[in-house]
């Protein structure tokens, strides 16, 4: 006999489609959840990193003598102590574990100290003498490829052209613009940290907060000159990620210190070091030209997009591809000429951050759509709807969008909501400037703005993107119990809950235990590109199917579907590797190809009050509509939309790592501001569930789309209130007051 | 230096405490209570919030020595055995916890608010939590959690 899901799920709760509590929730609210920075080991030492104070310099000499004399110091290491390859990187191996003879950004690691107390390590670090010959940094992304080459192959990391249709198309109405996006930081709250424990077999066990265990493992093993099986990683508690943990930070460093001293070594960055210790969102300069006919229908879009990758490549190649392929937004355009360049400079390295590539492009193309509406005296939502793509539309890459693309519907949903009333009583807390008492309503103007965005989900361009899941089913204490194991990183988003839900639904088992994520199982892929529920969810579903097949064999010829009876003393243990459908590389000349797996869409409406005299902005309301395919956990879906929207608000009006000649001017939460509860307005959310037939359960990646449309919607609202062009984010008070 | 301090009702002692160490470091690294978090160590994020003699403070801004002879209550001291404090319960239920790094500080701040103001309105909740950063949730579900906890505390 075979078992149907209905027979198996009859009695379980907390399956897919519901919002059960997180399995780690209790530990987290009690303060008992072990984050990487909470780890402790008998006899452990503390590591510290000496970083370059210069954006670009030659290292003339390094003298460790005085540092080694500090009592309590166990080791002081430089690049000479790196036993394996001193270069690593996600896509190009161009970044030194420790600098050799040149430093290419301020904050580049030069030496390491291991000591008995973090303070001892810092004191010793200050006694390391490094002599630098300071060089003139390359800091302008638009001219970087013509400037001093910072790497052997020059300063171009990647150029992606996209060509579709008539390259010489002309139109009745033309709008142009130059836009800029500042450097945003992920600003996850849990600092970079980990604990490396030397093992008896000469290998190392690393407990770490990361987004991708296996890619860390490969890079650490290569730097240490160890085989993969001697480098074992276990995920510890992760305090948020948002892309900022996809690259290595202290992983190799802690392992080097541990292997040198034979002592467990802990490293924890403080907030300032965190700003230097991870990659940021690429700043961008974007030149756009939109041509349309009198009805608002787009005839062509031309764009030149520059992305500043900073000193090392990180994921710049993928960011460039996203900005190029998604560069016209969720619109149908027959004639497209887009070029995107990612370059090296001596600015801080940039890489993955939520919505990468799509965020930068969306600020420009949505600003352009508003400009077009203005030129045509059309409603900004109408001009978008006239051009909105839908299922069956063709992307500028030639790829046909083969599942739901409800762009017009999402826009209508946010537009049709009633607008918040203009408050008649003055509550300072609702005013721009808040209780600083800067206005009682004088000079305050309201504005409303809209935006919609598009994001690719999963890894693209032919990448072999897969995940591995293992499920073990047996009877424990007279009850069926399942164990689920993956290496896919829980970074806060709630993947552990989703995994439990899938197993409950598929196997009809209430008790599902999630094993710690580690490298003893196969690759789970990265927690990025909104891909884990899709890919590791797909793998978990497939592992359950394999378990069910075994169960069906046990059931053959027997007259029961009761798991306890069926299983008896048997243990079913299945591991499955699961891939989403394959993608293709982009043609290097035309940018054509079925490069993406799936597209996700979200739309926002922002309502703002602007104190036009002081340039202060209060976002009054921020509504969002998003298609998620299928909400496996509705509460978590909302959490992603709310959190993603908040990060978009941050980019719109406050968040930027400011650099001057390559130096970071605001590496602290005092000077780099992220939204507080006072900055975030109430949100109304519409979630559509238009299943994607190609995806497990029909899911569509959720995490990134809301970050994309939130920023341009807010800026559109500020423009509506002020009449200003505002071509740059974040919008600062002086952009509004003009002083 | 030696520091004697009552933490979550227990008399604790730490030796060889350095001059510059914060109460946060003392709790986390010397007393085995890492529940209070270290997101900025500069007084900007609230993740390290604890009660010091019943007043919520950023423990990263308090020198360990200043806690000498005083009473500290941390997030680890809110639940009664297995029973979560209503604020903790509401945070889990409302989905106010994602990565959870902000949670200990927010739970203490919300706990303090509800003690002082049994029926806080939204503006009061926002004001009370304004010193606590959260990067994951966009705060909506944190607001839900505090409203829920306050409602339950009243009933
Ligand atoms: S760690 Fe104390 S306020 Fe941030
Ligand atoms: S839940 Fe991650 S910072 Fe608040």
Features:
heterodimer; A: 739 residues; alpha+beta; Aldehyde Oxidoreductase, domain 4; Aldehyde Oxidoreductase, domain 3; seven-stranded mixed beta sheet; six-stranded mixed beta sheet; B: 155 residues; Ubiquitin-like (UB roll); DNA polymerase, domain 1; 2 domains; 5 helices; binds FE2/S2 (inorganic) cluster
Question: In words, what does this structure look like?
Answer:
Chain A is an alpha+beta fold and 739 residues long. Chain A has three domains: 6-33 and 466-579, Aldehyde Oxidoreductase, domain 4 (2-Layer Sandwich); 37-135 and 199-238 and 245-263, Aldehyde oxidase/xanthine dehydrogenase, a/b hammerhead (Aldehyde Oxidoreductase, domain 3, Alpha-Beta Complex), CATH 3.90.1170.50; 284-460 and 587-737, 2-Layer Sandwich (Aldehyde Oxidoreductase, domain 4). In chain A, 25% of the residues lie in helices and 25% in strands. In chain A, the strands form seven sheets. Chain A has a seven-stranded mixed sheet, with helices on both faces. In chain A, α12 (495-507) links the parallel β20 and β21. In chain A, α5 (213-224) crosses α6 and α10 (380-387) packs antiparallel against α11 (407-415). The longest helix of chain A has 24 residues, at 532-555. The termini of chain A are far apart. With 155 residues, chain B is α+β, with helices and mostly antiparallel strands. Chain B folds into two domains: 3-74, Ubiquitin-like (UB roll), CATH 3.10.20; 86-154, Orthogonal Bundle (DNA polymerase, domain 1), CATH 1.10.150.120. In chain B, 35% of the residues lie in helices and 14% in strands. A five-stranded mixed sheet of chain B has the order 2-1-5-3-4, sandwiched between helices. The mean pLDDT of chain B is 97. The structure holds FE2/S2 (inorganic) cluster (FES) (2 copies). One FE2/S2 (inorganic) cluster sits between chains B (97-102, 134-137) and A (189, 240, 492).
